[in-house]
Amino acid sequence: MAAHAASEGTPQMIVRRLFVRLTLFYALVTGLVFGAVTLNPALVDFLPIGGAQTLLSGPVSDPLSSVRIDATRVANLGSSILWLFIAVSGALLTTIPVTWTYIASRARKEYDQALVETMIVLPIAVTSIVVMVHNSLALAFSLAGIVGGVRFRNTLKSSGDAIYILLAIAIGLAAGIGALEIALVMTVMFNYAFTTLWVADYGALIGGHRYMRAHDAESVAAEDHEKDPAKASDPHEQSGEGR
């Protein structure tokens, strides 16, 4: 039983569970959206999608022109709130799988719970901000001045964490301009590509750093021994079994 419990925490098992979890999540969300649109076809006009086509086929003569959000059915307060609610909810649902990838891929000493919470909240804020400033250059400059006056003192524990912040901002931008399909494709490719790279052990070197966290005590002790043999302790003592 002990050996079986330890095997469930191996990196290979973590990757498999993550892969299955991501697949089930995307399938479930796709099914729910498809079912909701089937039951109420009018919801199609309130989905924050279609912006990618506008960006790809739009004119480039005026680089300062605003991005057009294809929300033609938004004509009153109720419909605008519905569109915003769907956009923010879509950004949130798109971000959640990214947090799963981060949680599974970070070593304990590099893991930052505040970063996970930031990744969830940041797209919500960015989506709302983009909706406010997308059609006003004056508001955009005002926002830049306000943000410039805020000082962020939190330092990322790992340089690789910056990509997660960038991804969260991109999700919010995509949802804010009504191009949630960009965020969906981006995050799906990111999650599966990261998981595939781990399974393939791409770019591995002996003694090199790996992102996926080793949950079992023996693997943790092996990592500590590799870095500093003098300070490495018995894995049973680290897990509390030796007490």
List the helices and strands and how they pair.
Blueprint: H1 2-7, H2 11-39, H3 51-57, H4 77-105, H5 113-133, H6 137-148, H7 162-176, H8 180-200, H9 217-227, H10 235-239
What's the overall geometry?
globular
Rg computed from alpha carbons, rounded to a whole number of angstroms: 22 Å
Beta strand %: under 5%
Q: Approximately how much helix is present in the residues?
A: 55-70%
Structure summary, number of beta strands: 0
Describe the 3D structure.
There is one protein chain. The chain is mostly helical and 243 residues long. Helix content is 64%, strand content 0%. The protein contains ten helices and no strands. It has helices at 2-7, 11-39, 51-57, 77-105, 113-133, 137-148, 162-176, 180-200, 217-227, 235-239. Helix 2 (11-39) runs antiparallel to helix 8. The radius of gyration is 22 Å and the shape is globular.
Salient structural properties:
243 residues, mainly alpha, 10 helices, disordered C terminus
Give a brief outline of the structure.
With 243 residues, the chain is mainly alpha-helical. The chain has ten helices and no strands.
